[in-house]
Every structure is written in structure tokens, then in C-alpha cells.
Task: inverse folding
């Protein structure tokens, strides 16, 4: 079945550091790929998506490029802020007619001032 | 504004009791989902639905039932609640290759 593997556990950075959270997927068909962000006490929020190979998704300074060859969708940000501290989820949407979205286990980002 | 609303926000239940978690969406999405979120496990899919009258088992359906009486409403039912079902539950709506919109969650404690 479909699966998503992302950077495990916690990533700790200082403000203005460069962020990379790795995401690799396994899926039949040609899924859409997503990043979601979850702040404490809230549900996950849609960050951005990409639907085809080499497409770049971006929002709020975060970006990721769909790479079908390496089955990856790594999240990057050039300069993180304390307010970016949250849990980030990589996800893949319906592939092959299967309407079950698949989420990674989440990566907790902590940004120190 | 399109939204997903869950109720209640917090619930304390007794072991062996029945619990119903409710979800309403105004996105007019065909698909709705119930997840539970636990430390170390991320989001795990319990049940989902393609539309009114349909329910499908997700990855961890044991001990849970679901009901989709209308396009807007999707309920999760714990007929005999157990302490292992203590968790945070999220409802979401979405369509094929569309963005998924989540509710704010229900925190359930089974004692």
C-alpha cells in the first residue's frame, strides 16, 4: 500500500537557520503530494501541494518540489522563525482511485530565538 | 467560510460506555475521514466515507463504527469505550487529489 516516510522526531534550529525536512513516498499511480502544519491545540492545516513531477509548491516561505524520480517531496525554508515551531506532516493524496490520504508520522520543528 | 466543526471539544467517558463524536462540514466535499492522533504514531485513519450512506474501514477500525447520514455529517461511534481509545480525534473532509480540511479535534479521555 501507499506509504510516506519523513524525518523522524524533532528538528531543533535557531532563528534564521535553513530548514530541511525530508519526505519520501511509495505509491502506485501518480498521487498528489501535500505538506500540512499543525500548531498546538489545533488541527493540521493545509500548507501547499504539488500534483505532477517537477512542480514546486510553496507557501509562507516554505517550498517543496515533487520529484518522481527520487519519490521525494522535501520541505525547505531558507530562514526559519520562532513562529514556525509546529509539527509538519507530509502526505500523499488519492492514487489509483483510492480515496484514502496517507500521512507521514510528523516532524516536530522547534525554533529557538 | 468553508469549515469542519467537531463536537464535543473535550469528552470524559467511562469504560464500557458509548461515545459518539460528531463532525459537520460546509465544504461540500464528498469524502470525510476520522483520524486519531497519538504521540509517536502521527495521524492514523479509522474510518472514511465517499458520501452520504457510505462508510469504509480505514487502517485501525477495530472498536469503532462510523455513520454518514448526510453529505455534511459524519459521526464516529465507540460502542464500548476502553482506556486504549483515549486519544485526540480529528475529522477531515476532502476529495480526490483535493486539499483536506481538518477540524480542531476532540480530546477523549476514557477512565
Result:
Amino acid at each position: 500500500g501507499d506509504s510516506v516516510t519523513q524525518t523522524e522526531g524533532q528538528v531543533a534550529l535557531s532563528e534564521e537557520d535553513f530548514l530541511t525536512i525530508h519526505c519520501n513516498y511509495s505509491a502506485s499511480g501518480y498521487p498528489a503530494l501535500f505538506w500540512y502544519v499543525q500548531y498546538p491545540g489545533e488541527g493540521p492545516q493545509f500548507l501547499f501541494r504539488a500534483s505532477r513531477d517537477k512542480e514546486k509548491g510553496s507557501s509562507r516561505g516554505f517550498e517543496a518540489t515533487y520529484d518522481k524520480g527520487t519519490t521525494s517531496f522535501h520541505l525547505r525554508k531558507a530562514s526559519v522563525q520562532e513562529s514556525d515551531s509546529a509539527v509538519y506532516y507530509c502526505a500523499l493524496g488519492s492514487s489509483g482511485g483510492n480515496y484514502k490520504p496517507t500521512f507521514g508520522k510528523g516532524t516536530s520543528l522547534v525554533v529557538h530565538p | 467560510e468553508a469549515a469542519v466543526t467537531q463536537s464535543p471539544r473535550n469528552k470524559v467517558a467511562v469504560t464500557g460506555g458509548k461515545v459518539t463524536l460528531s463532525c459537520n462540514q460546509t465544504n461540500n466535499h464528498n469524502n470525510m475521514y476520522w483520524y486519531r492522533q497519538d504521540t509517536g504514531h502521527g495521524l492514523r485513519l479509522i474510518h472514511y466515507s465517499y458520501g452520504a450512506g457510505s462508510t469504509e474501514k480505514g487502517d485501525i477500525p477495530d472498536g469503532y463504527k462510523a455513520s454518514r447520514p448526510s453529505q455534511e455529517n459524519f459521526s464516529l461511534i465507540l460502542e464500548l469505550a476502553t482506556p486504549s481509545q483515549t486519544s485526540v480525534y480529528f475529522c477531515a473532509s476532502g476529495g480526490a487529489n483535493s486539499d483536506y480540511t481538518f477540524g480542531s479535534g476532540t480530546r477523549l479521555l476514557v477512565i
User: Anything to note?
Assistant: The first strand of chain B starts at residue 4 and ends at 7.
